[in-house]
Specification:
Helix content: 25-40%
Number of helices: 8
Low-confidence stretches: 287-291
Number of strands: 10
Strand content: 15-25%
CATH architecture of the largest domain: Alpha-Beta Barrel
Shape: elongated
Number of domains: 2
Strand order of the largest sheet: 1-6-7-5
Length: 291
């Protein structure tokens, strides 16, 4: 799933390549991705891209008024969605429901430059909203403070009195916006914290370490991602990971074996040597007892 660094890089790419270009046509190939009907997608035709922004893990493409209020195309790529930039595209409208294409935006001219929204697999969770105000999107309205702007004291305030495991809290977008499964694994590994540590029970020193790790991991990932070609972003993300998606490999810090805990539809990775005092966490595939 694309997270804060990748969405930041996609927004940067669109600001560099799509800004000041007019929409020639919008092709909708995946109706299930559209979550709004008013205004219709046809309202984008003739409007000029004025910028791109990030709200947590949401990507927003901004369009000038024509006349009236500016419009915002709000995209949540979910687990298997992606944005692909193209310099040329087929002029023939795609057939709805065929293949991974959900939406295609032609800029300058039909068949010219623009971008596609695609989604792999059968679980269609990619969402697209066309709104006059980003706050109209329920997921954006619920977002907590952005992870990159969060101060140490603000983080401490968010953790105080909370009963959730720290892994659960980090990926809760209503608490902290922008962090997903992969970077929460990396942050906790860097902070030397167990994923099952109680959020409200962290010491001042552990909160210091968590905030430092959060800033370092995300800032490094953003710096590595911004400026990369869109096609390179997924590989760039994988190359920077130390524990996430590395089950069975040696930890690059202590050499212990990276372990995994799996649930019904997700899994996370951690290093026992760095994070849990050498003790493996119980995997719910094998036991319902979590120590």
């Amino acid at each position: 799933m694309p997270e804060l660094p990748e969405i930041e890089a996609l927004a940067h790419h669109l600001r560099e390549h799509a800004a000041y270009r007019a929409v020639a046509r919008v092709d909708v190939a995946g109706m299930s991705a559209l979550k709004t009907a008013d205004p219709p997608m046809s309202e984008l035709v003739g409007r000029v891209v004025t910028g791109a922004a990030r709200y947590g893990k949401f990507l927003a493409v901004e369009f000038a008024d024509r006349p009236g209020a500016p419009l915002h195309l709000i995209i949540h790529l979910s687990r298997a969605g992606w944005l692909r930039w193209h310099e040329v595209a087929a002029a023939t409208p795609p057939k709805p429901g065929r293949g991974p294409l959900a939406l295609r935006v032609h800029l300058d001219a039909v068949g010219g430059p623009g971008f596609d929204l695609t989604e792999a697999g059968t679980q269609k969770r990619l969402s697209v909203h066309l709104v006059r105000d980003p706050a109209e999107v329920p997921g954006i309205a619920r977002l907590g403070p952005d992870a990159l702007t969060l101060s140490r004291d603000e983080l401490g305030g968010l953790l105080a009195g909370r009963s959730e495991r720290i892994k659960t809290l980090l990926v809760d977008q209503a608490t902290i916006a922008g962090i997903g499964n992969a970077y929460s694994d990396e942050i906790l590994h860097t902070a030397a914290l167990s994923p099952y540590a109680g959020s409200g029970r962290l010491t001042d020193g552990q909160i210091d370490a968590l905030h430092s790790a959060l800033r370092a991991v995300l800032t490094d990932a953003v710096e590595r991602s911004v400026g990369q070609g869109v096609a390179m972003l997924k590989g760039e993300k994988r190359s920077g990971l130390r524990v996430h998606a590395r089950t069975g490999l040696p930890c690059p810090v202590c050499g212990d074996t990276v372990r995994e805990v799996s649930f019904a539809d997700r899994a996370f990775q951690y290093c026992p040597g760095c994070q849990t005092g050498g003790r493996p966490l119980a995997d719910r595939r094998l036991s319902r007892l979590v120590k």
